[in-house]
Specification:
With 437 residues, the protein is mainly α. The protein has 21 helices and no strands. The protein binds heme C (6 copies).
């Protein structure tokens, strides 16, 4: 988290250094928008609705420029200086503290205020109901396809049986009428579909022959299907006990994944957040406007799970009968495979999205990748790693440099575009023991 703060601070300072000319001019809304985004104001504020902090539209009407500069740059110092409005506001928000942004210059704060002042009014409100992401449809499509195929097969069998019955009846009728000639001729119903030689074959041999021709490819297909599709949960998107939306929290509110999946950089597992993390905001965010004065039923589930009484006496809101929420686990490798997040996110510098897809657009999380061995291996063969700037690869990097200089097996170091490319595969990323105990 510190690293993140540092990043934000670094970006903002860079902007401060590179935009000195603006500082002299009238406030610049475009610059303000960039600063608003770079400093993640949107993770706690929206322009038109109360979130963790107040809705900001019109704030320039209720506060002076001087007040806003002091508040935004260092609200703590400002409160401690005894400003009554600042302290009142802080109390209204139950002591939820806003970050300190001393890296912003007064002129930059005014840019942000200008942006808030001039930002266009919102368009139609978005729905937050549990809409399944359209990509989840992939799997349904393929299963409908299989159902159709099966139906066609059943239909064909029914037709064949009917044809057979009809022929038998015809033959019986012919025999009864003494028309031996015609009964012989139509002896076997399939004869008219087949070349004469085949048609005259012993029916048992013919049956075995046909079974082989149709059965073998079907069996092969079934085998392929079994090893590549069965157990693969790509697209799996179970309904969760609380309609938590990544689209809203990670997308619209722009919360950092690590705010909730806090162990992802340090450990093997990414971890699912405790409900206390939700309470940082949902003690206050109850969506009563949306539910005509009632607390949102989904937020009530969080309260129930923590045995929290929003009306309770201060200090006694939490009862002692919590019932933890059981989130349905979506991604799950078999026990014999070892996967480590830290290695991929920190050492490999991969984005979550390269494996989990556009989570920030998913109303309901779905498994985006197959998680099969072939998927791991493909990426290890094809992803370039930054071997030059990472101590973890020091040995590999010097070996590669040496090989390239001496032109030894050096073709392996070039990607299809002719540029040097070092992959996890060269670092043992294809060794069985790295992924299997
Ligand atoms: C971690 C959450 C958080 C972040 C990030 C944050 N704020 Fe705030 N902000 C708050 C809270 C909470 C309040 C209400 C006062 C309090 O409790 O401190 C507030 C109050 C304010 C106010 C006063 C509003 C009023 O009605 O008087 C302004 C202006 C403001 N924030 C602007 C910003 C700007 C600009 C940024 C980004 C540079 C920002 N905030 C980032 C949480 C945040
Ligand atoms: C506000 C907290 C929060 C934020 C921010 C957040 N998540 Fe989550 N995440 C959750 C919760 C709660 C669950 C379990 C419920 C669910 O699956 O929706 C979850 C589930 C997941 C899962 C599925 C876990 C499983 O069961 O296999 C993945 C993958 C995931 N999040 C990735 C991300 C990524 C990537 C981001 C950033 C773009 C992100 N999350 C941001 C709270 C959060
Ligand atoms: C940084 C603040 C923040 C955190 C942390 C947070 N939320 Fe939210 N959440 C919000 C805001 C703001 C909204 C309301 C958006 C709106 O007005 O539509 C919201 C909306 C929701 C809703 C929709 C409620 C409804 O009836 O429409 C659910 C459910 C929800 N959050 C669950 C969670 C859960 C579960 C967690 C913890 C894993 C969590 N939130 C963490 C800020 C947060
Ligand atoms: C290289 C691919 C890859 C990347 C990058 C990646 N994940 Fe995962 N993630 C996985 C796999 C594979 C699993 C299943 C792990 C298991 O079952 O042991 C998983 C599982 C999860 C889970 C379920 C809980 C757990 O740890 O098993 C969450 C939550 C999650 N990832 C979040 C994230 C977040 C947040 C990021 C980015 C910071 C991220 N992942 C980056 C591949 C990846
Ligand atoms: C999107 C690309 C991608 C996918 C998918 C991926 N990996 Fe990786 N993996 C990497 C990169 C990049 C590294 C290099 C980082 C490193 O060496 O630690 C790496 C490194 C590793 C390492 C460490 C190798 C070493 O350097 O000693 C292991 C083990 C590993 N991955 C296991 C897995 C498993 C298991 C899966 C599938 C469940 C998987 N990976 C899927 C990109 C990926
Ligand atoms: C980059 C990581 C990685 C490497 C390297 C790797 N595997 Fe796997 N392997 C996996 C994962 C992940 C699974 C689980 C896939 C699944 O459930 O479909 C798996 C599954 C398997 C299975 C179970 C069969 C199956 O399809 O579920 C066998 C057997 C296996 N691996 C053998 C090997 C052998 C032998 C090697 C070395 C030549 C090897 N693996 C190298 C990641 C790896």
């Amino acid at each position: 988290m510190n690293k993140n703060r540092f990043k934000i601070w670094a970006i903002a300072s860079l902007m401060a250094i590179t935009t000195p000319t603006f500082a002299q001019d009238a406030p610049n809304a475009d610059n303000g928008k960039k600063l608003y985004e770079a400093n993640n104001c949107g993770s706690c504020h929206a322009l038109d609705k109360k979130m963790v902090g107040p809705a900001l539209r019109g704030v320039h009407e209720r506060r002076s420029e001087e007040w806003l500069i002091q508040w935004i740059r260092n609200n703590k110092k400002f409160r401690e200086s005894g400003d009554p409005d600042a302290n009142k506001l802080y109390q209204e928000y139950g002591g939820a503290a806003m970050n300190i942004f001393e890296n912003l210059t007064p002129a930059q704060v005014l840019d942000i205020v200008e942006y808030i002042k001039t930002a266009p009014a919102p368009s139609a409100p978005k729905t937050t109901g549990p809409v399944v992401d359209s990509n989840a449809g992939d799997q349904d499509d393929s299963s409908t396809k299989y159902i159709l195929l099966i139906l066609v097969a059943v239909f064909a069998i029914v037709l064949m049986v009917l044809a057979r019955v009809k022929n038998t009846l015809k033959r019986i009728a012919a025999e009864r009428d003494g028309d031996v000639e015609s009964s012989k001729k139509h002896d076997r119903w399939y004869q008219k579909f087949l070349p004469e030689k085949l048609g005259k074959m012993n029916p048992t041999v013919l049956a075995i022959f046909t079974t082989l021709i149709i059965g073998l490819p079907a069996a092969w297909y079934g085998y392929k299907f079994g090893i590549t599709e069965v157990g693969v949960q790509k697209g799996y998107a179970p309904t969760q006990p609380i309609a938590f939306s990544h689209k809203l929290h990670a997308g619209e509110l722009k919360l950092d994944c690590k705010y909730c999946h806090s162990t992802v950089e340090e450990s093997k597992s990414a971890s699912i957040p405790a409900l206390n993390t939700c309470m940082n905001c949902h003690k206050g965010v109850q969506l009563t406007d949306k539910y005509h004065g009632e607390i949102s039923p989904e937020i009530k589930k969080i309260y129930a799970a923590l045995d929290y009484d929003p009306e309770g006496m201060p200090g006694k809101e939490f009862g002692n009968n919590p019932k933890p929420i059981r989130w349905v686990r979506i991604h799950n490798l078999p026990d014999h495979a070892y996967f480590n997040h830290s290695q991929h996110v920190v050492v490999g510098k991969l984005q979550c999205q390269s494996c989990h897809g556009p989570i920030e657009k998913m109303e309901v999380v779905q498994q985006w990748s197959t998680l099969q061995m072939g998927w791991c291996i493909d990426c290890h063969r094809n992803t370039g790693i930054d071997a030059a700037n990472n101590n973890y690869y020091a040995a590999l990097h010097s070996k590669a440099q040496k090989d390239l200089k001496e032109k030894q097996n050096h073709s392996q170091y070039f990607g299809p575009d002719g540029k040097v490319k070092i992959t996890p595969a060269m670092n043992g990323g294809l060794e069985c023991a790295k992924c299997h105990y």
